[in-house]
């Protein structure tokens, strides 16, 4: 049981000079093994939502449930890739990747195997014994991703995990994530600023508006992906060239620009026909 | 070795001012020749009832003992005050009350408690070195990056992991800063303590030399303190670089 459910979540922050309403009436769920992407302008509360699912922040109204249980703190079933990497500067790349396994008590030989697997998978060969500050931003981000993947958690919470990557590495990571999601699907809540990325990766895309943060639309991508057989495409550019992809992408862009009024789209978004 | 040039300049200025230019009287400040003669006296036959090596040994061992005591007590207390609100509320007021009293001001009391032997001096050195160790450790623990702590938590860290894998390594740079300041405080207060009552030691040499109006000998003792202080700081820096290979 690893679905995430937000039930009428509200989050106020205390600030000098009054309360600040960051999130209002957030209702949605990420089904078990579903990949949901959150898009929305900066400051609309995406990170705050993710932190609540992680158990690092708590709603001031409503409930957040993971696997039917109210979230009371971080747990071994969930791992987070942070927007600012948050690597341990005093640990080598290998030690960073193996940190969760060490906490879990995984035997050393098995731990080593898993670490090597992810060092290779993330293209970090030759840097295993370096410290984070000796790596480029993109490499650091890959370490952060590997640190979370290595735990094989039921739920992955990713806050713009590819934000610091160069375009090429970003595409490689996205394709890798699609492959991982296909071979070993997990429940994923994924924040991104890139609409293309959201449409390419997610089963559903949630579009948010700011001040206060609200959900403006939920777009189903999974149905289109299956009927249009995006999965047969080996590379992202092939998917992006599909008419169905272009359609969904411009639809989300219009939502973000506020060209479509939000009220009606919530209902309409569910059917999401193509063309 | 950066800073060699200014020191060289200082030495040249010293030669010039005390020698050919005759700007400073030998009684006020020794010329290089006088200082060298004093060094030969104390290194060979000895001065103030012991040879130089014995004075250095006395001072050095007192500093090492006081520094070790301050490090071994100050760092754990700093960790406690940094991690526990409760301990902080209990202990901090006492700490704040005692802090304005200069360590040297404790010398009269400690002589009553321990006599004129090493005990009183180690106590005073410990007292002086304790505060920087505690305060810097505490500040370092408080300043640990919150996101890194959260990252540890979401990857399954329990209290033990948080303490040993996050808090301690994150605080180590600050702890080393505290140790560096502690070490400086040790030397400052030791010489003062030895001025008051001692049978050997570099501070004792200075007092006897003052009575003898021997500026050369005062200078030699001061130079020894400076060299020992610098040498110990360098060793500490080596240790820091070895313990913290991840720092840029
Ligand atoms: N601890 C806090 N105290 C006060 N206000 C906060 C706090 N954390 C977040 N906020 C506010 O809540 C709002 C949402 O912040 P959040 O970080 O969730 O945005 P975001 O959607 O992740 O933005 P970005 O895309 O720039 O990362 C912002 O206006 C922010 O100023
Ligand atoms: Mg954010």
Identify the notable features of this structure and list them briefly.
heterodimer; A: 275 residues; alpha/beta; Rossmann fold; 2 domains; 6-stranded mixed sheet; 10 helices; 10 strands; 39% helix; disordered C terminus; B: 248 residues; mainly alpha; MetI-like fold; 77% helix; binds adenosine-5'-triphosphate; binds magnesium ion
SSE ordering of chain A: EEEHEEEHHHEHEHEEHHHH
Shape of chain A: globular
How far do the termini of chain B sit from each other?
19 Å
CATH topology of chain B: MetI-like fold
Q: What average pLDDT do the residues of chain B reach?
A: 88
- Write the CATH homologous superfamily of chain B: MetI-like
Which radius of gyration of chain B do the C-alpha atoms yield?
Answer: 22 Å
The value of Rg of chain A in angstroms is 19 Å
**According to CATH, what is the topology of the largest domain in chain A?**
Rossmann fold
Q: Can you list the ligands bound to this structure?
A: adenosine-5'-triphosphate, magnesium ion
Helix content of chain A: 25-40%
Order of helices and strands of chain B: HHHHHHHHHH
Structural class determined from secondary elements of chain A: alpha/beta
Assign the CATH architecture of chain B. Orthogonal Bundle
Spatial strand sequence of the major β-sheet of chain A: 6-7-8-3-9-10
CATH superfamily of the largest domain in chain A: P-loop containing nucleotide triphosphate hydrolases
